[in-house]
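User: My collaborator sent over this chain with a note saying "see what the structure looks like." That's all I know about it. Can you take a look?
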Amino acid sequence: MRQLHAATLAATAVAMLAACNFAGARSKPIVIPAPKIDAPAAGKSETAVFAGGCFWGVEAVFEHVKGVTDAVSGYAGGKSGSASYETVSSGDTGHAESVRVTFDPSRVSYGQLLQVFFSVAHDPTQLNRQSPDVGPQYRSEIFTTNAQQARVAKAYIAQLDAAKVFQAPIVTRVEPLPAFYPAEAHHQDYLRLHPDQPYIVYNDAPKLVHLKAMFPKLYRGG
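Assistant: Without extra context I'll predict from the sequence alone. Here is the result:
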């Protein structure tokens, strides 16, 4: 797996957080309880797919979780048999920018990935948008790959809503994964390749700072 340029990322993230709160960057990590129900390990490698706004930041977050062996930006949820950035950006295809996460369930559970997704990777209370990005292609959605994932994801949303963890209801959808289409090559590892890009500095670099602060045992640096 490709690694981020740690020194550059740390410098830009810390400088941004010290200055002020930018659109899309939470000033403090949101502490949420772990899922009461989790999925048992079903093999040596499993796949989960998450949509939470622009895939650049979501991908970078999961790449820094121990036990994740691969994270790929792409498109999911649409009805057409193909997807590209140009077509998905229209908002008319039904796809969402998503990230396919391959993980070792003996090292990180599906429930732990959900906890990272809801607390660090995005804001699950924003409907059809995320930070400055607006449209159904930026919606919050969990695409499940089996019935157990669906059960755990739905139960966790109900748990968090009942506990009123967030100031607004969770709008995250949970649906079976119809297909996943990897995004174009220049979208992969975008944060690693463009750590100084303003969008990355303002919206995505703080997520890694929060991941390390909230989940030190899960965080993988580099």
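A starting point for your reply to your collaborator: Residues 6-23+44-214 form a domain with the Peptide Methionine Sulfoxide Reductase; Chain A fold (CATH 3.30.1060.10).
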